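Collaboration report, partner site 2.

Our partner group contributed sequences for two proteins of shared interest, and the home lab folded both. The records are reproduced in the order in which they were received, starting with the first partner submission.
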Amino acid sequence: MEDNMSFQEDETLRLYVEESLEHLSNIENDLLAIEKDGADINEELVNKVFRAAHSIKGGAGFMGLDNIKELSHKMENVLGMVREREMVPNPEIVNILLLASDTLRNLLKNVEESNTMDISSHVEALIALTVDVAPKKGKKKVSDDVDISLAPGETLFTVSRKDISSARKKGFFIYIVKLDLIRDEGVSDMTPMDFINKIQESGNLFDCRIDVDAVGNLKVIPCLKGCP
């Protein structure tokens, strides 16, 4: 995060933290219910938890909260495999998700220090789950990434190859959207979090960041999403 960004003074950051903590408010009960269902998954419940992680990830990318973004993305990957019935949510898997969600909540409650906090053990545990399952399905490791560029040598995003493959299999189109929240018609009255929430409603937001170097302020937001 920028050194001059204060949680008390930045309304957008405060709203993001409040919304994210609301997403996590019932996650423990939801995960335990998912574990109880086992292979007979409740798709609505799994999707609820998946969307919570997905929403937190999207906002974190906009805010430059790298650890929150990484941890929520790794949780999203595991939940996505549960949702697609590629992984049965046994007690070990659910425990790893519960520990990660507790750490994610702690990162959000200490948002100004979140980028310096150690999340490596949780990230490694979540990656191990997806890597363990992928070879059994004859797939590439989900940790393999692909660079998204508009011009040679200009990498805008590095995203999971699995995310791209999954979107294509579902018939989604993949877009790179570059938006000026002040000047672009139709969004000038929206807060940054309104924009993030709106774009996530229309598809799967792979990544999002602020292009500070391009404009010298915080108004232009490139984002990458897949949608039908």
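Second partner submission, folded after the first:
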Amino acid sequence: MFVEVVIFIILGVFIGFLTGLAPGIHPNTIFAMVLSLSFLFVWLPIQVLLAFAVSLAVSNTFFDFIPSIIFGAPEEDSVLSTLPGHRMLLKGRGYEAIFLTVVGGLGVMLLTIISLPAMLFTLPMINEAIRSIMHIILASVVIWMMLGEKKRIAAVFIFFASGIFGFITLNSFSSDVMMFPALTGLFGISTLLTSIMARTKIPKQKTGVEVRAEWLKGTLTGWFAGLLAGLLPGLGSSQTGIIASRFTGAKIKEFMITLGGINTSNIFFTFVVFYVVGKTRSGAAWFISQIVDQLTFQDLALLVAVGIITSLVSAVLTLRTAGFLLRKMKDVNYTKITAATLMALVFLVSVLSGPIGLLVSAAGMFLGLLTISLGVKRIHMMGFLVFPTIMYFSGLNSLLFTILW
């Protein structure tokens, strides 16, 4: 069985590489496809499929940042990196931005392993304690964000406009289908169009990275935020990234580490949550729940071991891939790359979500361009996800749904 496990770990990392570099193709789609073809894998030991699920999910959290930072093509789990990460790219520090996300991923992996024994005993209590006040925490963070904005009225408008847009979109259509076109319009297409109109040029990219003690803060913040994302349904990496960055006052480098850490720790914690309370909080955990009713301690130990191996391999591959792409970019016209990326995103939206997806993406694009023209921080457009989450945890979902419809 050892050989089969190794083979499927390699396969999982390879597919995670492809899903990470291709915007719009999510690991959850692969998991659904594998389950639909489960008759082909009935001869495999359960442990082999567990290893495949973990290696795919974990590797994707590393590779996912490459297209969002270099090309400005975001997905839900890496959407916030489009903002500071792309700014670092324009300053010749794109490699450093990706390096910082890798540091976060590896750091929280280590912290998760160290804290695992304690988490096995305390997760159920933490889950119940936080869930009851999550809407209050989120609302407090939103207010704090508004108070820290120079153009507060414009920021309030953008947040609630994005929030209503998100509430209507996510309640009218499948979130799995519409999340990509909406976020692509809000953050991807609007950023790419602005770059094209400004004829942005990418400066020579620096490859040196300074090692700093402050990285510990970003890693700890990513670990905690990933814990929240792993515990609470409806609260994803983007929302917890907002909470973490605002409460810790993270600077741009710490924020990039935090973002890298959130996604990786989230995946680890969702496996632990499934083991402890039997709840699924990620596509990978859901996939595992479809092949086993309950994880044993030996299964959990296998998941952790595979996660460690995958993290180390993915970190190296992410840095190598990013370095290669950034070296090649100096030889081509970035405006043409941006235009090609834009056309590819529109094509993916049309293929994956059809005409409705194009309309949703267009609406998000106009809102994104409005935000840029108003000079408001684009993080307020995360109201698309944060506002519906507040409505869900506060119990006001049905009331707002009645008012709008």
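Feedback sent to the partner group on the second submission included the following. The two ends are 55 Å apart (CA to CA). The longest helix spans residues 334-374.
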